[in-house]
Amino acid sequence: MNTLKEEEIRPKVVFDEFLNLAKNDIKTYFATSPRTAIVCPACTSDGEQAFRKNEFDYALCPECQTLLVSPHPAAEAFNIYYIVLLLSTMRKPKPVERKFGKQSPKWFTMI
After folding, report:
1. Facing residues of 73 across strands?
2. Phi, psi of 76 (to 5 degrees)
3. What percent of the chain is modeled with pLDDT above 70?
4. Which of 55, 67, 68, 103 is the most buried (most CB within 10 A)?
């Protein structure tokens, strides 16, 4: 049986770029967005602060163990983010070849 390695599925350089773009998007679209504490969407209990990651606070529901973002950014921030994302994917991609180790997959970028 031939097993795939992580690097073959998701080359590190590509994944690192994705993470960098995601961090930039968080700063651009969510950093100044007003936030509102929300209850658990599964059982309506108040969540307890669990951890913070990438500028988002996560809460864990003590009743059903649901993990949720709370306080939650305003819906308008998500609307703007997804509209910009949709518009950017509507542009015609131009193929750009990048070499990764022994493989040479073709990755498409927006230009």
Report:
1. 35
2. -60, -35
3. 78
4. 68
The tokens of 91 are what? 């542009």
Could you tell me the CA-to-CA distances from 99 to 20, 56, 68, 91 in Å, in that order?
Answer: 20, 34, 38, 24
CA-CA distance, 42 to 36, in Å (whole number)? 17
Domain extent at residue 37: 33-109
- Binned at pLDDT 50, 70 and 90, residue 110 comes out as very low
Residue 20 falls within a domain, yes or no? no
Return the closest-CA partner of residue 12 out of 99, 108, 100, 98. 100
How many domains are there within the chain? Answer: 1
Q: Which two tokens stand for residue 52?
A: 């913070």
Residue 110: closest CA among 85, 93, 90, 86 = 93
Cβ atoms of 70 and 37 within 8 Å: the answer is yes
**Structural domain includes residue 100:** yes
- Per the structure block, which two tokens stand in for 38? 């929300």
